[in-house]
Design goal:
Layout lengths: L2 E11 L2 E10 L2 E7 L10 E4 L4 E4 L1 E6 L12 H10 L2 E6 L10 H11 L6 E4 L1 E2 L5 H9 L4 E5 L12 H10 L3 E5 L3 H15 L8 H4 L2 H18 L2 E4 L5 H4 L12 E6 H5 L5 H4 L12 H12 L10 E3 L7 H4 L16 H10 L5 H16 L15 E5 L12 E2 L18 E2 L2 E7 L2 E4 L17
Parallel strand pairs: 1-4, 1-5, 6-7, 7-8, 9-10, 10-11, 11-12, 12-13, 13-14
Antiparallel strand pairs: 1-2, 2-3, 5-15, 15-18, 16-17, 18-19
Length: about 450
Amino acid sequence: MSTMLISGGTVVNEGRRLRGYVVVRDGVIAEIGEGEYPLANDFSTRIDATGKIVMPGVIDAHVHFREPGLTAKGDMRSESAAAVAGGVTSVLEMPNTVPPTVSLDTLEQKFDLAAGRMHTNYSFFLGAAADNLPDIKRYYAGGGRLVKFFMGSSTGGLLLADARAQAALFAEFGGVIAAHCEDEAIIRANTDLYRRKSGEQATAAVHPLVRSAEACYVSTARAVELADRYGSQLHVCHVSTAKELTLFGSGPAAQKKITAEACVPHLWFSEEDYERLGNQIKCNPAIKTAADRQALRNAVAGVGEWRGRIDLVATDHAPHTTEEKSRRYWEAPSGIPSVQFALPAMMELAKQGVMTLETLVERMCHAPAVRFGIVGRGFLREGYRADITIVDPAFADPHDGEAGWMVAPENILSKCGWSPWERERFDSRVACTIVGGRIAWDGTSIATGATGERLEFE
């Protein structure tokens, strides 16, 4: 029997924090307690977490790992390595690959590709297309619960813009429908307008005008209306505007049929950053105004008029090569590699008082497990799988003697090799990531051998 004792740290879990210990036996959390561990047991592994935060492993419910077909940008092994280095222990990966994941065969091929290669635990969304409703119905009948559909086109070409096909999806599928909400007609009209205005001289600063707040609101309102009409389970991905927040209810995610997600880039950057970062922060939906960012932060934090409107935080991790991002605005693809630095960024926001540490854990660990019905993960509970992240909240870089650490190119593990957070200095650093009771990241290196498991759902 493999055994592990994590002691001395501040355990943050289910709205509480305590100085205590976690005992793991054969990949399962066996005990959680306050103070020092009371017995003199021998353990296979002992981790001294003194001065550190011990929390459930982050569940990132929105990533694009690019395999199959787009592996020059990233693959399941490289991107899951970046994920565990960022404290992420489980991911839900999206269907816009090549070929797109729109059939039961292509879905099972992804599971085959992931087995033995993913450092994180994993599952995959089935994509909704114009002609695959029969596959979706068979998928649901067989226990499948995750479908993603695009109301506006984005990277990968998946689009379900036909109103009748959208209605049929909501009427027939009883699992969680994750929606990319941008209105295709508005985007096309804006594209024509700004191509005429700016031509090839357009920069990324035009992106929030092309993929506008109106395009997001109109599409999100349509998705919410469909979910209300058919009583469907809807999850709106990467909400990016204050106006969209008016469409959602407050309260715990477990009590909702319609939930909303914010992504870390929309919580960190604003349109003011386009001048500095350009296409590096070009993503769909676009990063918008500082006022929109503040509204999203308040919704995540659970304060003010938007209290309870955002249920969980994800990354929309989407790597592209440097060459692709260096193209002119119109040709550069949308997407930001963010899975490795999302938790340090969110810890920084917590230190700034944007949200509490308990709220961070709720949005990034607990709520994704609850919303998608992931079995045995997302909480530090006896009998749950030992997916645990340990964070040093006050890291001091031994190389320069300064507080915090700076993101350098050699630290970036995503295959694309770049990050909009490059040269950013974070106070918090992921000291250890434990997946299924095994150390996947020890603070400096990825463990040999990938041990991520296929997720199970209620």
